[in-house]
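Lab notebook, page 48
Experiment: co-folding of the full assembly
Goal: obtain a model of how the components sit together before planning crosslinking
Operator: M.T.
Materials (sequences as entered):
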Amino acid sequence: MEKNLQAIVDHTETILSSISTRPEWEQSKASILGPNGSLTQVAKGIGSLSKEERPVFGQSLNQAKRQIESLFQSTLTKIDQHADLASLGKKFDHTLPASPNHIGGTHPLTNVRRKVVSIFRKIGFTVAEATEVETEWYCFDALNTPQDHPARDAQDTLFFPETSVWSNVSKKSKEKNILRTHTSSVQIRTLLKEPPPLRIIAPGRCFRRDTVDATHSANFHQTEGLYVDKNVNVRDLKGVLDFFLRELFGEKLETRLRPSFFPFTEPSYEVDLKAPNLGKLSDRWIEIMGCGMVDPEVLKLVELCPDKWSGFAFGIGLERISMILHGIDDIRHFYQNDQRFLSQFSNAL
Ligand code: PHE
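Observation: model returned without errors.
Model output:
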């Protein structure tokens, strides 16, 4: 009998060394310690022993039972630890390189717009906005641009069909809707809404019927500027633009006003600039923007008396600023959403 007990302990050790799951463990335990298990069977043999033999055998039985139970317990602990580790998945290799961190950035045109707005904010300009859909009156007539002006040709301007309805774009009378060809229409919308003195800039998207190439795009961005007050003169215009352009392109900048023509300003100028820090474009005159004194006809059209009020206006292309600052040679890069291009300029100006 004693031998049988030892054989069961040995057998327990053998089977426990080969099991790895809880169901196997349950089954093995039942086969040894269960009601029909091998140890239980041997224990039943106690009845056939003499009175003297029984306590001795009883002791051996208890000892074998404790040994077996402790074997089962330690095997169970191992099985559970194993299951826990397996549920955690593969071992993590913390020496591997980290995956790249894709944080989005702002578009180069957004950066320019924010910079322009922040410069003008320093000298008291606020931002004005209007819709990209306009009417012929606000985009042309009110800006003293006659019916037969080439800009109004269907070759240059995108017209909406006469049946289209834009309930959020007020009309002067029954003129057609168009996509604005410049932000100068915001001058008119603002002058009709707010009494002077006023100082606004109006950044926004414009549309022209252009064939797309490296320097032309059917949609592009401008910032308009308008200053109306008493006794505003060309010196004020030059002073404001010099301040703005130096903040943008650096202190070493030179500027000049070159006579030009716009229907809504008189006199009108193109502004040229020259700076030593503009890469390929350094140290030569580059045309940057249009400007002029608000034409008295425009003031009359918005019912302001030209004897009392005067002002200046200017318009600058945001793409052009970015192209000069960063040496970008193709306007199409701005609209193709190529990460290799965009990520070079995110959050930089
Ligand atoms: N609107 C003009 C353009 O698109 C620019 C401009 C604005 C010129 C204001 C003078 C005054 O070219």
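Interpretation: The first helix runs from residue 2 to 17.
Next step: discuss with group before ordering constructs.
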